Automatic annotation (TrEMBL):
Keywords: DNA-directed RNA polymerase, Transcription. GO terms for cellular component: DNA-directed RNA polymerase complex. It comes from Flavobacterium piscinae. This is DNA-directed RNA polymerase subunit omega. Signal peptide: none annotated. Coiled coil: none annotated. GO terms for biological process: DNA-templated transcription. One of its GO terms (molecular function) is DNA binding. It comes from the Bacteria.
Amino acid sequence: MDLKKTNAPVNTITYDKRAIEQTTGNVYEAITIIAKRANQINSEIKKELIEKLEEFATYNDSLEEIFENKEQIEVSKFYEKLPKPHALAVQEWLEGKIYHRDTTK
């Protein structure tokens, strides 16, 4: 997932309910699918962030010296400015990028 190329909004916006339920015909089913995708995106972002922050980890037992690493701060700020996982999931849903199927049919 390339988070830099997304056009998902950073702020909260109102979506048209008809646009969200258009694919499934049921707004609750659509929201459930979007929520599951948001959980997937969240775990991907978390894993990616932990991997990047591991590079800066220092394993000292002393609490006397805490170093502020400029690169670590920049990485953290980048991830703080990203759109939230639910916004990314809704954007993917509206663009038709989420595959879903009904297992009961």
